[in-house]
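Structure record:
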Amino acid sequence: MDIIITDLKARQVLSSRGEPTVEVELTLNKQYKGRAIVPSGASKGKFEAEELKDQDMSLYKGKSVYKVVKGINDEISPFIVGGKYSSLYKLDNKLISLDGTKNKKKYGGNGILGISIAYLKALSELYHLSCFQYIGGINFNHFPLPMMNVINGGAHSNNSLDIQEFMIVPIGAKSIDDAIRYCVEVYYALKEILNERGLSTGVGDEGGFAPNLKNEEEALDLLSEAINNAGYILGVDFKFSLDIASSEWKTKDGYYLPKKKKVMTSKELMDYYLKIVDKYPILSLEDPFDQEDYSSWNSFLLHTKGSVLLVGDDLYTTNVERLKMGIENKLSDAILIKPNQIGTISETLNCINLAKDANMKIIVSHRSGESEDDFISDLAYGVKADYVKFGAPCRSERTTKYNRLLKIEEIIKEQKQ
């Protein structure tokens, strides 16, 4: 059977931050449809695919994406509608060729990714499979553990914390259902503690609470108390993960922590992290150093010797060439996967496969500016990711992804009966 793209259209919609983003609808063989909404990050890596905005300050303060939408509808659509594309890789290669720039500066990663995801969804419909099954087959004996962001800081909130995300990881859970329940119960307990102490229970971009606290250690102490109050054991049922997002701090003089108004050297940062790792059960540290501070990454990886996962996000930006460099120079032992950092799903899958070949842990992640699109849940299951980062169990653009994980687990159980 020929697989033909029979319709493609894009429109501007709103993300969870109320900012414009791109939605794409694609139809195969006049009946199999896929729809995708592209997310957007607040803290972006230097090497990410271009996210194009109109820069017209009279519209959405320059954040509209009408030009990206027009590029899809008026330029890309005439090239690919009517074309036969038997695989995701063939379509993505065509899109990359049409763009013709290194970082997708012509049509934007935010334009091309929408087409790539919508095509994959439509292809899954054509083969009567869920997306996760089309990506990974039908046999699953593994589920991704949530790294649930329950306290927000850094660029995701206006509070006093420089570290961007404080996450709880339910290492004792035996199913997705249990993993989500464990985390939600701790989230409830944390809210009760904050209320009792007169601290803010307002939430940041990713649904985590954003109280003003003395320091990062106080945040971890609050989480330790919440885990205990919820009836769980820290170190047995839960560990912590931290997204440092230190590229946001880098200056020519070292690292400037804006909320503490303090400059630290790489060595001082490393000592600070080691102090935290010694005091608390830390599973992982994400972006502890700048995306180009390679010597610090390598030194820290050698020093920790696998006792804590070092996760590259801005370091790699889901880019195979960046990852090859990181593997060669022994910079980290885990990678964060964000499809909109690279701009197509086939390139995302190539990056995941390379990381797996290097025995790195895979963490599939949302962005701070999200939507009701739950595709990354299917992606995480399909590639058999070790962990997912979808934010707190709050705000529908986050919970829709957890709800999809629950549905996927149900589908898998039904297949095994």
Q: What stands out?
A: Residues 53 and 63 are 5 Å apart (CA to CA).
